[in-house]
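User: tokens in, sequence out, please.
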């Protein structure tokens, strides 16, 4: 597992959750086991990986006008604005060779 910086907010939150879970033991005894039918009907939650490698989560600061334009364009194309940003940057990367 990748070690997060102690100064990162994400690392702090993760550590805080671990401590909270260790302090209290969760009692699952009152939860009945799932049937085969229930298990078969379950679906994966979360974003599926796109492409050959999973995408990297980053934080980026954009001008408000730029973000507003990106979101507007993404709405017109009916895609998430983050996917549009990736698509635009990938196009520039291919042009640069």
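Assistant: Sequence out:
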């Amino acid at each position: 597992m990748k070690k997060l910086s102690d100064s990162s907010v994400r690392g702090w939150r993760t550590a805080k959750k671990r401590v909270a879970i260790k302090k209290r033991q969760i009692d699952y005894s009152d939860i009945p086991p799932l049937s085969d039918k229930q298990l078969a009907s379950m679906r994966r939650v979360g974003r599926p990986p796109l492409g050959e490698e999973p995408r990297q989560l980053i934080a980026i600061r954009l001008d408000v006008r730029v973000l507003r334009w990106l979101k507007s364009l993404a709405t017109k194309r009916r895609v998430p604005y983050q996917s549009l940003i990736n698509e635009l940057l990938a196009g520039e990367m291919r042009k640069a060779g």
